Every structure is written in C-alpha cells, then in structure tokens.
UniProtKB/TrEMBL annotation:
Responsible for the deacetylation of lysine residues on the N-terminal part of the core histones (H2A, H2B, H3 and H4). Histone deacetylation gives a tag for epigenetic repression and plays an important role in transcriptional regulation, cell cycle progression and developmental events. Histone deacetylases act via the formation of large multiprotein complexes. GO terms for molecular function: DNA-binding transcription factor binding; histone deacetylase activity, hydrolytic mechanism. It catalyses: N(6)-acetyl-L-lysyl-[histone] + H2O = L-lysyl-[histone] + acetate. It comes from Oreochromis aureus. One of its GO terms (biological process) is epigenetic regulation of gene expression. Gene3D superfamilies: Histone deacetylase domain. This is Histone deacetylase 11. GO terms for cellular component: histone deacetylase complex. Keywords: Chromatin regulator, Hydrolase, Nucleus, Repressor, Transcription, Transcription regulation.
Length: 367
C-alpha cells in the first residue's frame, strides 16, 4: 500500500469510542465488570471460569496495586468497530442462539431468546473485545497495557469457536494499522495452550504480522490450514513441565524478536498451561506461568517494544490468583510501572493518532 493510499484509508476510519483519550492518572490496565458472565448458572456448564476477570481485579485491589480511580474502564465494541474485521454475514449469524450455543459450548443457550443471549453472553464478550482494542492504543502510548480479559484467538473474521465469538486480537491489530502512525509490523506471541487459529487465518497472507505460536500439539483446534500462517511454530507434548517449557519460551521468543523487530507485541498469555487444567494438557506450575510472563515483558523492554497483553484461556479457579500474582511480579521486577504518574510525558514510540471522533476452532474446544 502506497503512502497516499494509506492516508486515504485512514481518512475513511469510522467513528469509534474505543480510541478515546485516557487520562494519565490511569494505569494502562483495562477492565469492566461487564466482562463477567453470570446468567442462571448456565456459565457453569462450560469449564471456563466466567467470572475470573473480576477475581483478578479484586486480588489486585487487595494488594493496593490498582483502584477504581486508576483503572481504565473498557467500552463495548460497537457493530461498526466489529465490521473492521468481521463480515456482516458472520455478525448476523450471532443473532441465532444455536450459533452462539455452538461457539460457546453451552448447549442450553439454544433454547433462550437471542436478546437474552446478546445481553448476558455476547455483550460481555463484546466489552472484552473493546477492551483489547483500547489496550492496543494504550500500549503504544505507555509502553505496555493489559486487558484483564480478551484473547479470543479461535475466532476469525467469519467463524467463531472455542468460546471465542469475536476476533479481538485481529481487531486490535487492524485498528493499530489503520489509526496509529508508525505501526507497520506486529508480532503475536501466543502462549496459550491451544493453537491460535483465529488470528492465524486472518493474517495468513499479511507479511506485516509475524506469529509465534507455542501450544499442545494434541489438542483443539488442530487447524492445519491456519498453521501455514505461523512463522515460528513450537508444538509441545502432553505434560510438558516448567524447565523444558521456559527454555523453549525464551529460545523461540528471542529468535522471533531477533528475526523481525516489531513496532508492538501482542501477547496472548493464556493460563491453561497450568498443571491440572482440564483442557490444556500441560504441567506448568504457577511459578512457571509467572516466570513466562516476566520473560516476555523483559525481552520487550530490553528492545523498547510496547506490549499488549490479553489473558485468554485458563480453566481452573486458581488461575485468577496466578494472573494477579504475575501482574504484581511484573511490577516488582520494574517491567510495568505501578504509579500512573511515572509514565507521564513518556512514550516508547512517537505516534500521531488519526482523528477518530470526526472521521468519516481434542474433543473440547477452548479459548
């Protein structure tokens, strides 16, 4: 795409509330209570802890790392936002409760009126999606951002699955390409236990996106077509433990970042690698997960690359505590600041936002 064509593309950007200016008094941690799915106990029919995001926030508040005043409140992605990636046909299909029941693997949903499914299931997922998009902009501005949610890496532009109804990773990247000067290369580091076939399908022929994916080779989704998009593929065996796992993370992540230096890293930090996870099939300790996240942030900081982190899969009650402990460790290690004012006036990348206010797929699936 020529510079002129690029400018013309940006001038056609739709109006969006997701790129609103965020006060410097806020930490780049994005969340909304609407992330949590609670409806007549139906959420308990899927192994996913549909309230884990709120628990992460509660733990961080208990440790006095965040409070309601310095947290960024996520906004729901509107249909116009979703259409940046999704087809109209796909979004219309979500108006059928059967389709949503299949994607989320909660069969009773098919018996509910779609307006309830929209309000109680899809709106939380749209709000998490909006949070990922917002966190992308914040990561560029502040050097890092964490969406305490998102990471729906099995959803692509025209198909959902594995509890993933919206392609938040693809959306965040497309928004960055379209709206932020200086973002022309993105690296996705996907360390969830499952292959990230959604964003892989979306970026199959896009040379601007480098994908490293490290996953259990024997579980869902086993999408051979999507694997063609992976530039650095690391397939793990059942029961992989800390020592081997962390060695591979460091080796392949360093190789990835040495091969192509991106303008931003999108880090899919699934905790379904935890020992005992019913869907992940790996044997990583809580300390191993915390160290993994530290390795990613340390490599990024050493190179001056902004990081957008999403929390993705994780199917045990204790994963929320581990996510919170990992974020606290990143702060203790000096890899993220704990006082919003510390980042005042500094940015790892000088960016110029285009005007956004006035311009025209194992037997069980998993996040």
């Amino acid at each position: 795409m020529s510079h002129k064509e690029d400018n013309e593309e940006k001038s056609r950007c739709h109006r969006t509330d997701l790129y609103a200016s965020i006060p410097r008094t806020c930490l780049p941690i994005v969340y909304h209570p609407d992330y949590n799915i609670t409806f007549m106990g139906l959420e308990k029919l899927h192994p996913f802890d549909a309230g884990k995001w709120g628990k992460v926030i509660r733990f961080l508040k208990e440790e006095q790392f965040i409070n309601d005043g310095n947290l960024v409140e996520a906004r729901e992605a509107a249909e116009e936002d979703l259409l940046v990636v999704h087809t109209k046909r796909y979004l219309n299909r979500l108006k059928w409760s059967l389709v949503v029941a299949t994607i989320t693997e909660i069969p009773p949903l098919l018996f509910l009126p779609n307006f309830l499914v929209q309000r109680k299931v899809l709106r939380p997922l749209r709000t998490q999606t909006g949070g990922t998009i917002m966190a992308g902009k914040l990561a560029v501005e502040r050097g890092w951002a964490i969406n305490v949610g998102g990471g729906f890496h099995h959803c692509s532009s025209d198909r959902g699955g594995g509890f993933c109804a919206y392609a938040d990773i693809t959306l965040a990247i497309k928004f960055l390409f379209e709206r932020v000067e200086g973002i022309s290369r993105v690296t996705i580091i996907d360390l969830d236990a499952h292959q990230g076939n959604g964003h892989e399908r979306d970026f199959l022929d896009d040379r601007r996106v480098f994908i490293m994916d490290m996953y259990n080779r024997y579980i869902y989704p086993g999408d051979e077509y999507a694997k063609r998009a992976i530039k650095r593929k690391v397939e793990l065996d059942w029961g992989t433990e800390d020592s081997e796992y962390l060695q591979k993370v460091e080796l392949h992540m360093e190789g990835t970042l040495n091969e192509v230096l991106p303008d931003i890293i999108v880090y899919n930090a699934g905790t379904d690698i935890l020992d005992g996870d019913p869907l992940g099939g790996l044997s990583i300790s809580p300390q191993g997960i915390i160290k993994r996240d530290e390795l990613v942030f340390r490599a990024a900081k050493r190179r001056g690359i902004p990081v957008l982190m999403v929390t993705s899969g994780g199917y045990q009650k204790k994963t929320a505590r581990i996510i919170a402990d990992s974020i606290l460790n990143l702060h203790r290690q000096g890899l993220i600041e704990g006082d919003a004012a510390e980042g005042e006036g500094s940015s790892p990348l000088t960016t110029h936002m285009t005007s956004t206010s006035g311009s025209a797929g194992s037997t069980s699936t998993a996040v």
